[in-house]
Amino acid sequence: MKILVTGGLGFIGSHTVVALQNKGYEVVVIDNLSNSSLQVLEGITQITSKTPEFQKIDLKDKSGLHDFFINHQDISGVIHFAASKAVGESVENPLLYYENNLAALTYLLQNLVKLDKQNMIFSSSCTVYGQADELPISEDAPVKKAMSPYGNTKQIGEEIIRDTCATEDKLRAISLRYFNPIGAHPSAEIGELPLGTPQNLVPFITQTAISKRKELSVFGDDYPTSDGTCIRDYIHVMDLAEAHVIALERLLSAPTKDTFEVFNVGTGVGSSVLEVIKAFENASGEKLNYKIVGRRAGDVVAAYADTKKANEILGWKAKRSLEQALKDAWTWEKTRVKA
Ligand code: WQD
Q1: Measured in angstroms, how far is the CA atom of residue 245 from the centroid of ligand 1?
Q2: Among residues 14, 328, 12, 4, which one has the least CA distance to residue 179?
Q3: From the CB of 201, is ligand 1 less than 6 Å away?
Q4: Residue 339 clears pLDDT 60, i.e. is over it
Q5: Which of 107, 150, 178, 223 is catalytic?
Q6: 6-24 b/e with 16+ CB inside 10 Å = b?
């Protein structure tokens, strides 16, 4: 079966391509290379000895996308990652996010609904919950007003897909609400490639440990948590990648009752920033240089997943530990320095 992966050279996309190929799927990748490089294609091939078909296409290019689908009528499913994902950048440049994440999504859907039966997995985020009233966060927690245009594009994106599935009986979709993806493939052939200064915690930690950054700033230790720092659900990117394959197989295997379903994808375990630092020091044997600074605007105090629905309905559960993810992130960082 042939599966299209949009944004397939990105961090989560590339790991999902590997997981798909490991399960015997033929993969076609489209990516506009705005936040990735062709080196990632080499990394995927190194791991699986199979090079996915690759086309450099921007989903905003309506005619390019149309031509692609004319020549790829045999796609059985689409996993849609291609989108901008920097929270801070989305606040500064909301229109860039609404165009790139939503207009492009509508063009993709307009092509999908012309094909025969279609199955779509959508890359969403726990950001849609904002600061949830109850922890762990379940899928029926209320979607709150987004804290950023980026988070808003995930909320609106889900609604666009839900409405399309409701009217197009040939399209079914699953939205996966990720918690915090971290780590890298254990081979260190692929991993996270943050552009410029990393916004996320773990790449900043590994770049500090390798002395690419002077020290990590911990954004606030005066939150109402055990050690005062924010709590998140850090999930190994390979666990997340495998969840995409399992969700796709749910759509490919049998008709589901609902045409649009949502699943939280996390470990179900919350870890504070200081606990992640400690776990990194244990996993790497490196002492981390950090200082406590003021809070970062927009941060929620705590977010970790209620994984019951994914465990019971998808039959998926995260297998890798926080320490394993940090060890793989560290191996990847050390490999990059040599590159
Ligand atoms: C985690 C914790 C920070 C950096 C965001 C998006 C989410 C997804 C993942 C795209 C927080 C603290 C961080 C640093 C720090 N993005 N931190 N110093 O904000 O939970 O989630 O990225 O899909 O949608 O919302 O992740 O890694 O930025 O922060 O203290 O240098 O680490 O305050 O408590 P976040 P993060």
Answers
A1: 25
A2: 12
A3: yes
A4: no
A5: 150
A6: bbbbbbbbbbbbbbbbeee
- Length of the chain in residues, anyone? 339
pLDDT digits (tens, 9 = 90+) for 24-55: 999 999 999 999 999 999 999 999 999 999 99
Q: How far is CA 125 from the centre of its chain?
A: 8
Domains of the chain: 2-183+235-265 (3.40.50.720), 201-231+268-338 (3.90.25.10)
**Catalytic site includes residue 150:** yes
Dihedral sign from CA coordinates of 222, 223, 225, 230: negative
48 lines ligand 1 (CB under 6 A): no
Distance 293 CA to ligand 1 centre (A): 15
| 263-312 tens-digit pLDDT | 999 999 999 999 999 999 999 999 999 999 999 988 999 999 999 999 99
Ligand 1 pocket test, candidate residues 200, 205, 272, most atoms within 8 A of CB: 200
AA identity, residue 273? V
Residue 128 β-bridge partners: none
Place of tokens 């996966």: 176
- State the CB neighbour count (10 A cutoff) for residue 299: 16
In DSSP terms, 80 is beta-bridged to 6, 122
Instruction: Tell me the one-letter amino acid at 263.
Output: F
CA angle 275, 277, 282 (to 5 degrees): 95
Spacing, Cα 65 to ligand 1 middle (Å) = 33
Q: Which of 248, 231, 241 is nearest to 265 (CA)?
A: 241
The pTM is what?
A: 0.97
**Span 93-139, pLDDT tens digits:** 999 999 999 999 999 999 999 998 899 999 999 999 999 999 999 99
How many angstroms separate the CA atoms of 25 and 3, rounded? 7
- What gap in Å lies between CA 264 and CA 306, rounded to an integer? 7
Using a 10 angstrom Cβ sphere, with 0-12 exposed, 13-18 middle and 19 or more buried, the burial of residue 317 is: middle
Nearest-5° Cα angle at 305, 140 to 262: 45
- The helix (run of H) or strand (run of E) holding residue 181 is strand 180-182
